């Protein structure tokens, strides 16, 4: 009990230390943060669900209206994981100095391969809790998704001004080889934070993941990242910065309008409505029209008029873009012009600029900020921008308003994801996100846990309530049905840590223990005797790159096979089998990088080094239409000619080749 109480205290103190504005500076200096970390890791971890807000540490919430299930999707290297650091920072799970840092940040990337390669390989989930301002939901002229207080959320003062919000965040990969991880993440989420590089714009993989989101009925919101590069590297004028951002918004909206499902609400994003943020994950800042309005005026009746006025091109450039560019110049990353008082030190220039910006509140830098960061312009810019325009504030507000809650999203997603009749008990339970309805849980992927003997099953409760010990029907992808018993329920913490909970209701993302033998990679759990399965996921990548492999130490052949079977069971797009004809062990993946990561996992987990053959790639291409032109081939002596036209085989021949006639000679 002493260890448990000590851990709870340390966990709370660590949270307070990371949100330094809530703790006196003198106390901060008395407690050594690294010492707290070492103490915490030497005894059992105790989960504590908390808010990153005053007097709300240790408070739990419930209710589907308070939940936002969010996947971060983008092209590779567009800044997904770096932006996720900002959300961890606001929740008190990351030190302010480490946010956006390539060495100390990127906390969502916990695998060795991810750290070494600098890319996300596996989807990482974490549950974060915040308090959001009620004023966000006061306007009536915009599509909002209100939330309500559920249970005890702290003092009456906090309840009057703020509302609790739980964000189940999934940081997904951007590389095409790991696209199956994106598919699995989008199946269990309701919103997608689409991150686009301001310079590169909408890339190929951006389109691929956005199509997947739209097919799943997931609502997108847009973050235009790396705007700092437009200002610092390209040194564009404020007008050009706005035009570039507007071009990104138009490109994304044109793509959404082309591919969105016609029977769903309009899913295009809007700078006017606040479903677009722009900023820099590296420098830790982001801005949206809602955040500026909140600082300009708090009267709901006038916010709509201010919103329309501010969203106009000239007004937005004058009141938003120009002050941000001037702040970069005041911090020293751009040349200071004479009329902007170049003789002043940087802190004085920043404070003088803040005093002239109407929406900068009362923020002023103190002389203590003239420390070591003052000598490095980029570090000083990061400090100023994180104080002035914190990225997480803009992102959390946008997610709270524009990403639907499970209660709302499942009304239109139920016909998309449920394979049975939407009018049956399971269909209605999913549609209404009913915690009292029949249990329906979808497992989207398996993962090997750090302390668990078996695999953890990651998924979502679409209907009903589950508890440890529940016995459910397990509906496999191959059509078979088995029985499953839940031995444990967890929610995800940072760095792959799991925190046990007593129950999970409809709308919640969870990691289950004890069901990995009942399901193969993915599947449905239900308590209904007549309930149907959740529809199978449709992956855009398949394991087409194949290698035969064998261990260098042949005595470890069986161990290699067993370990690879476990690794591929936790990977949606990997395949491991033994060829019946050659008796070789075959490992298949979506690409060469995918194969390298699988073999690296084998070496790290079991120490088995293997030899691999040259890749065998199965090209699955065919003819869709009869060719318009006739191809002509001539023999060397020109006496023989051959004309060829390509056309699809008719259905009779295809059925014969795939059926019993294929075995006849």
Describe this structure in words.
This protein is α+β, with helices and mostly antiparallel strands and 665 residues long. Helices cover 35% and strands 19% of the residues. The protein contains 22 helices and 24 strands. The strands form 5 sheets. An 8-stranded antiparallel beta sheet has the order 12-11-17-8-9-16-13-14. Strands 2-3-1-4-5-6-7 form a 7-stranded mixed beta sheet, sandwiched between helices. Strands 18, 19, 20, 21 and 22 form a 5-stranded antiparallel beta sheet that branches. Strand 11 and strand 12 (481-485) form a beta hairpin. Helix 4 crosses helix 17 (391-402) and helix 20 packs across helix 21 (592-606). The protein is globular. Residues 1-60 and 150-158 have low confidence and may be disordered.
Strand sequence of the main sheet, in spatial order?
A: 12-11-17-8-9-16-13-14
| Separate helix tally | 22
Principal-axes geometry comes out as globular
What portion of residues belong to β-strands? 15-25%
Feature tags:
665 residues, seven-stranded mixed beta sheet, disordered N terminus, single chain, alpha+beta, 35% helix
